[in-house]
Write a structure and sequence with these properties.
The protein contains eleven helices and ten strands. The structure holds coenzyme A.
Length: about 280
């Protein structure tokens, strides 16, 4: 039986190396309940090691991508109730793990396919994904100020990492909603596309990523993320070591393959075309 067959709040679809994970509480605009947090952690952990998953797409069922934390089930029911203290701690831990640590460090490329509303706590997994493409009509909002709380969890940090200082302050403090094109302008997402093109554009990117050397993609992702918080000297050392690790891990020998195709057979020029990779395992 597939690991996801018993989930109540999460759908998983796997096809040709591309796995789509859908938050599935459309009647609550995919707000994150404690149960959803636990299922998502289980799901992401399983997919990390899943050999058939080469690219991960994260999306939402219905009109929302994710309306943030479930204000009723997560906050009102769990907070301040000593009987639910353990459940609260567990749910917070599960949420923090999947939304940031597991997703940000996921060993394969991840794409947020933002089909609709994206609010509050959902900004954490939005920024944790490597790529984000939204429908033009998708509505984003840091609504926390309206509830008398701050963009907590990791939302404020995620905003600071993804967008410039002025936009981070403006949208966090005012709580004003904005749409896909504005999210693209500020660099919160890569691209905003017409609603009816969303799936197609995301699949184009997913297929491109799926065709690349997985070890080179993994190491490149780690290189960009790890060096964000390093000094120049630390980065230099780290990147030399990372390249060594990549050469060791890469069963395809992507480096010698690529150089040979360019220098010896002259069958490939990176400026003109995608790399015609010789896969090791088909
Ligand atoms: N927590 C709990 N329930 C939520 C929710 C949330 N974050 N977001 C939506 N819901 C629930 C609504 O209470 C409603 O439940 P009901 O049918 O039992 O009354 C249901 O989802 C549908 O919401 P509704 O507001 O009727 O849908 P809409 O399509 O008109 O509007 C939103 C969608 C997302 C704009 C609106 O629901 C909203 O503003 N939600 C709050 C988002 C937010 O501030 N999130 C930050 C939390 S940190």
């Amino acid at each position: 039986m597939a690991f996801y067959s018993n989930y109540k709040n999460v759908l998983v679809d796997m096809e040709d190396g591309i796995t789509t994970v859908t938050l599935n509480r459309p009647e609550k605009r995919n707000a994150m309940s404690p149960e959803l947090e636990e299922e998502m952690l289980d799901c992401i952990l399983n997919l990390e090691g899943d050999r058939d998953t080469h690219v991960l797409i994260l999306t939402g069922a219905g009109s929302a991508w994710c309306a943030g934390m479930d204000l009723d089930l997560f906050f009102r029911e769990l907070e301040g109730n000593p009987e639910n203290a353990v459940k609260h701690v567990r749910a917070e831990w599960a949420g923090h793990q999947w939304k940031w640590h597991r997703l940000y460090n996921f060993p394969k490329p991840t794409i947020a396919m933002v089909n609709g509303y994206c609010f509050g706590g959902a900004f954490t997994q939005l920024v944790a994904c490597d790529f984000a493409i939204a429908a033009d009509s998708a509505v984003f909002g840091l609504s926390e100020v309206n509830w008398g709380v701050i963009p907590g969890g990791l939302v404020s940090k995620a905003m600071n990492m993804a967008v410039n200082y002025r936009d981070a302050l403006y949208y966090s403090i005012t709580g004003k909603p904005f749409k896909g094109p504005e999210a693209a302008r500020m660099g919160l997402i890569n691209e905003s596309v017409p609603d009816d093109k969303l799936r197609e554009e995301v699949m184009n990117l997913a297929r491109h990523l799926e065709a690349l050397n997985p070890e080179a993609v993994r190491a490149t992702k780690q290189a960009i993320k790890a060096t964000r918080d390093m000094t120049v000297d630390q980065s230099h050392e780290y990147l030399i070591a990372k390249n060594g690790q990549l050469a060791h891990r890469d069963a395809e020998g992507g480096y010698s393959q690529g150089i040979s195709k360019f220098i010896d057979s002259k069958s490939y020029r990176p400026g003109f075309e995608a790399y015609p990779r010789d896969k090791v395992n088909g």
